[in-house]
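During the reporting period the student researcher (J.K.) took over the structure-prediction task from the postdoctoral fellow and processed the backlog of single-chain submissions. One of the processed entries is reproduced below for the supervisory committee.
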Amino acid sequence: MRARYHLRFQIHPDPDPARTAADATELAKACAQAEVDEVVLLTGAEESFAGHLTGSAEDLWFETARLAKDTLEAAGLEVSLNPWVTVGHADRGRSGAPGRLGFAPMVSPYGEASTAQASFACPRWRAWIVAHYGRFAELGFRVLWLEDDFRYHNHAPLHWGGGFEPLMLERFTALTGWHGTPQELTAALTAPGRPHPWRAVLQQVWREAQLEVAAEVAAEVDRRSQGRSRLGLMSSGLDAASVEGRDWAQLYGALAIGGRAVQRPHFAPYSDTPARELSRQVWSLELQRALRPGFVDSEPEIENWPHTAWSKSDTQTWSEMAAAQLAGSDALLLNVHPMHGRRVTRFPRVTELLRRSRPALDWLAARYHRDQSTIGVGLPFAQDAAAHVRTRGSGPQALDELAVDPGPAADLLLRYGVPVTADPQAPVQALFGQSAWAFPDQEIRRMLGGGLLLDGTAASVLFERGFGPLLGLDGVELMPREQPDPSGPYAEEQVLDTGAVLSVNMQPTLARLEPGPDTESWTEIRTPQGLRWGSGRTAFRNRLGGRVAVLAATDPVQLPYDDSGQQLLHRAVRFLEGERPLLPLVTGGPHLIPHASHRDGTTRLAIANGSADPARPHIAVPAAPTEPQATLLRPLAAPRPAGTVTDADGLHLETDLPHRGWLVLEW
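J.K. obtained the following structure tokens:
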């Protein structure tokens, strides 16, 4: 088993076919040097985008793609196609298809109309996309990709996005009888309190319009490729997709050809970021894995933008490729050349990056597979969470409040050395924020019968829903930072048994927790004068046999990270695990980010160093393996064995784990 490289590259049209063939031949040689398996040809992307392709412009790109495909396939490469637009990414000053082709433009919740982006409800645009994909499918590409503009959100310069076009609102009116402006509708959908039933209706309208298009494109690609091609979906954040009402299983089902489809999960930033951001990559891939049906392959995007090491270091790119392999990905979709680059030989460093990365990625690919199970604290996620969220404001600007996912819980856990999983049956779960509205009572009771970690917002939601006795709380009151308080402002959190002090000074809101008589308070919140304000962290065993730990913080990621905070979180996890603790917990340095999995009788724990300083991880394992196999993956280097020492609490690494390096333990 080896890692698969799928290289995304744009070969530009040239009046001389010989030059197009030469560019493709040059690309094939670079692919051979980097051991690339497939080229994903871009058409009309970024700087080359002059609007939706039609007429002679489409003819020119079609002939370029045909000639490049033939040349690359003759060199032994597989070839896919990535048309750069579906509805359109952004106007960027282009007049585009609405005026030129008669497409109904996207309209934002503010009533703004796009100049270059089309409505999912527009029949002219639907006819165009079906014909466009169908025509290129005749060339027999392995996959034809739908770009990540196949969505309602994020269509600049529209605020939030589209989906409020007259044609779309006609569908909404047919179901509800309502007539009005986009602003009036959005105000109703985002009003504070119990969500208006129309929120779910509009999401249904959006979902059905998108599914109709997906099914039409899939049928045409199947017909005109004679079953040779699949469709792939490039997707973005799960939280924004939830606002749209996206049903992932239905969408993949509509896209499937011959019972198969492909996803490109977006999971990493475009440019350099602190290494602690690896936590987002680990949990983002894990959540998407859980939502993806078994018939869908995963090819996460490795993206530098505007591209090359001037945007993102080779070290960061390598560490993100490693994270994708840990997720058991089927291939890596490499978007690492400028789309305006034209000739691959201009970027020898990219070829060298891919060549040097391969030994570690091949090593990981041989061990991590799509059918592995992950181990950790569970991250409950309802794909329809946005239908249940309660907002503070109302109107178009409040749409952003509907975008929720388990990210805050996952980041807190991972950056403190606690592995996570999307397995809904994990013995310990963490439910933070507004997501607590998204689960029915029966599911909440199931979580409360195991181990459940809550932040202040989730505790407030569950208390309001009548679960206070199972939380061990007699009261929960959310206190915004700017709200006057007779007892004084909250300032710090003191650990009662050690005297250690942590800060809560920057929390935008804090939950004033009133523990019940049988509830332990591990910390208390104090004012600047040292007066008690409320409990900071509580622990409770309930009548269902479950254990609940509650944090007063409502934005835990904004808590200052430190050793005391890590000790408290690890203590909470061990409490929630109960009498038979199993999870490996990592210490030994800041932001040591774990990924734990199991397959075919082997447990694997991978740890990334999310700090710029070297670290020597210590792993607390209740039943420490006596002879684990340890492998050190240094950035852009071949794997090599590493030594570990077993002690009373677990084991630790004998050598330094460098910045963005990965340690893999197997037992």
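The committee noted the following: The two ends are 20 Å apart (CA to CA).
J.K. will present the remaining backlog at the next meeting.
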